[in-house]
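Handout, section 3.2

Students often ask what a structure token actually looks like in practice. Rather than define it abstractly, here is a full record for Tetratricopeptide repeat protein. The first block is the sequence as you would receive it.
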Amino acid sequence: MTTISSQPKDKPLPPQAAPVLSTGNSIKLKEQGDVYLGQGNLEAAANCYRQAIAIDPNYAKAHSNLGFVFMQQGATADAEESLKRALSIDNTNADTYFMLGNLATLARGDLEQGCRYLQKAVELSADLEVAYLDWARYMKFQGKLEQVKQFLISGLEKHPSRADYHRHLGNIYQDELQFDLAANCFQRALSIYPDDADALANLGFILYKQGQSQQAHATYEKVFSCLKTATINAPNDTDLHFKLANFLTSQNRYKEAIDGYERVLTLNPEYGEARLGRGMALLVTGQFESGWEDIKDSVKYAALPPTEMPEPVWLNDADVHGKTILLHADQGLGDTIHFVRYAEQVNSLGATVYIRAQASLKSLLMTLPGVSRVFGDEEILPPFDYQCSLSNISLAFNTTLASIPAKVPYLQASADRTAYWSNEFSDFSKAKIGIVWSGNPLLRNDKYRSIHLQRLSELLITGDHHFFLLQKEIRSVDAPFLSDLKNVTDLRSHLVDFSETAAVIANLDLVITVDTSVAHLAGALGKPVWIMLPFSPDFRWLLDRNDSPWYPTARLFRQSEIGDWDSVIKDLKRALDLEFM
């Protein structure tokens, strides 16, 4: 059975004809159910699985696949019952454990139980990559990543030929800045499976980190060769084509990546993640019209749990004069700050505009022009007529590069809190600069966009400027270096929400940050912000430019190759010396 994604699923399809098959063969019935499942005919698939179970009540795979159908339909209680029944018959099926892990974490919010199921899926299958990624992410969220590390170390003592264990352990060492240990793990993985594209890509990243650019380039070329050969040998394997396209985006080879995503969608027009990947590639290359359309369904892969709303979706396809429309956050904090700029345009159409967003943004978003009310993500909403996710609002206005609403500031810091911080900073005569070097470690691309504090030491030790920490969390790997920085003031305990952070930024001369929510906040406030970008950037920063059409006060500092923060920091230091003598 095809493994499922941990992302929220589509809404249940409308019931379709579910034929009663005359065969009395449970295996054939299950296989016919799999065909229907591949076609998206959930009712027919469920009917086949039920008939197979009626003939053979101990048919574990039929129970498991029926559970999968129930998950797709949102019937979580029925899904859990079917999956647990499958497990009681056969406790060696990794897919079943994986699905139960998804139910526990996403449907019930039970991370502990979910992680137990996911760990078991990892133990049973070296091929179920998504199970490990989900398990490690949830364990990290609970502060238990060390347990994952010890699990891998113990697992390799028993199963030294598990290439996936070597690779996963290498990733943890890499995050801990133990690059030699990480490289050793990736090399061991490759000694077992020389064409492991993931291990090759990770080794290439380490080589860049260690300044071995030539070897890194050669390693990445081998990744491309391995994936290309695999797609040639399996031309109809959509997952392989998708993996190749994703790799090409990481190399900034966007034209080839777009072709790759299109190959996937030719083979399977319903491959939603490929459509989303193509959309992001189109947007970063400035092809907004088709890009917005492709990411229209990105709510299915949202950072925030989706909320079912009976009100119709508005994409500027109905007259909203005199109506009330809810614009609701569906991605991360930075995305919310980025897209709320459209509220004023919606209001100009004669609509009453409500915003629903993360609670930490509520007081800040109340300063938005054109907005009547702002609700936190847990608050009960009053009636409204239409709704639109913030990630789709650009599509609603058919935004092009020429029509980006870039009027800043569109958010305001509190006058009282701004005055408070003005007084607090009155004794600082040097240039006052906010600094953020890392973001949410749970994001899968975090290793590319975040910097370790040690790398910034040359920038932060200068006596000509004073830096203020604008990030809430300090990672354990960074903490030892913080105490040695004399020109840095730690504001973490004061930054209770984004409104307070905005008041601090209002009193600074400059903000320097990686691609995090603070970059968007400074830009939305109209403050000078210098943003350090990875080689393959987020779509809104586009390519080959040092300014941003979204934020007129932003200046972009880009990596010239993967992992090359040294040149970025050197450029930053030179710019600081020129502009803040």
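Discussion prompt for tutorial groups: Confidence is low (pLDDT under 50) at residues 1-20. How would you have guessed this from the sequence alone?
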